[in-house]
Amino acid sequence: MLAATSQALFAEAHPLPWLSSSPVSLVMLLLISFIGLIIARYSQHYLAGERRESHYYCSLQLTLAAVSVVVISNHLLLLLAAWIAISLSLHQLLMFYPERPRAALAAHKKFLFARIAEGSLLGAALLLYAEHGTWRIDEIVAAYPVAQLSLYEQIAALLLALTALIKCAQLPVHGWLIQVVEAPTPVSALLHAGIINLGGYLLILFAPLLTQAAAAQWLLLVFAGLTTLLAGLIMMTRTSIKVRLAWSTCAQMGLMLVECALGLFELALLHLIAHSCYKAYAFLNAGSTVEAQLYRQLAPAGRPDARAWLEAALLSTALVAAPVAYLAPAGPYSPWLLLTLTLSLVLAERAGRLHAGKLLPALGLAVVLITAYGLQKSGAAWLAPELPPSAGALGDAWVCLLVASLFLGYILLRYAPNSALGRRLWQSIYAGLYLDEWATRTTLAVWPIRLPVRANAKQLPQPLLNRESLS
């Protein structure tokens, strides 16, 4: 629907050569405009009367303008300039409450990681220019596929993958994303719904180059794949709604990058659009999210028995096997495994304390999900077609292993948290494997900062000492 709307609106547009009118760029521009409008309207009430309200709106407009330039840019230097502008204006939004130590620390780490990502993107741009003799992105992308990538192109693909990993806050540079919940809610919604997705958009933009660079694909498969697994499990150990949403974003971005590494760029684009809309709604509706979470705690899903699991596994396998047999895909098969396991959970956990959990409604929901997924994936394929990756069957097997591990970890934490293995897993992942602590120490060692001190910092009461107690 987004694709059709964008084509209808911009079919007659004739932009400048250094601006792109590709369907993907127009869909992204329409998405950003929609999300930006919602956030601006929400901010009118949320920040009414704030001392720095005018400063907020100035930074918000600059950020939205820079993001819009990134998605319609057809020039490497313009893309880089807008990418830097996003980081600088976003820094002002993250520091809206400069007196908060956690906000200042998160913005400081984000600022340093952003400089690394920008340096990586600059290196990729220079290498691609040296190889092709042009700054225009469409001319560079049109040169692929080629018989064999040169050394410059291999390094450029690696740098693009590194830029995407940092921009999408993948482990171990993820901590700032978890800590920016100190910023105002509209800022969190803008960050999670629009800005952090740009790493995936960058890979979709240079998809023909990425699919020929096996080293870049494996860099994404390893780091983004492990981030998806660990962040998805860590999210289950958190109680704060905003922190859970932040870990969810980290995991979702990892899955989107894995899809790009597997050559499923149409699926990654669909994932990007769906995640943007969902996360904007989730953050702006955080109050109702807390209420919904309380309802889930009061009426949790019933514990499935062996028969329920077997029934769910057989039904979900049959439901997924039908479109697979009809479409006869050559691979990869890991997304179908993920869909099968997800439907198994939906069917097995359909029973709660407040409802009987009949099979027919749950089965109908599963059919609707598969149908919607197939139709949307076909529509997204028109914008970003699937390309064969260099990682091949080995990369697909790696993702299948990660998906199975995520499913088993979920079962263990959900239904056996007090077992010896469950307690060991909980203790291991609750602190995020201490990766953020390592990244924070490294960041402060490279670039120290004096954090603000709260004016009303809590202090423990001191006991009263008298002469007898001293003696």
Helix percentage range: over 70%
How much of the sequence lies in strands comes to under 5%
Compute the gyration radius: what is it? 24 Å
Q: What is the count of DSSP helices, taking H or I runs of 4+ residues?
A: 22
Report the uncertain regions: none
Overall 3D shape? globular
Question: What is the arithmetic mean of pLDDT?
Answer: 84
SSE order, as H and E? HHHHHHHHHHHHHHHHHHHHHH
Supply the helix-strand structural class: mainly alpha
Please summarize the sheet with the most strands. Answer: none
Straight-line N-to-C gap: 81 Å
Tally of structural domains: 2
Function: Part of an energy-coupled inorganic carbon pump.
Protein name: Probable inorganic carbon transporter subunit DabB
Family: Belongs to the inorganic carbon transporter (TC 9.A.2) DabB family.
InterPro entries: ND/Mrp_TM (IPR001750), NU5C-like (IPR003945), Proton_antipo_N (IPR001516), Transporter_DabB (IPR046396)
Task: Please provide a written account of the structure.
The protein is mainly alpha-helical and 471 residues long. The chain has 2 domains: 279 residues, no CATH class; 84 residues, no CATH class. The protein contains 22 helices and no strands. α1 crosses α2, α5 packs antiparallel against α7 and α17 runs antiparallel to α18. It starts with a helix and ends with a helix. The mean pLDDT is 84.
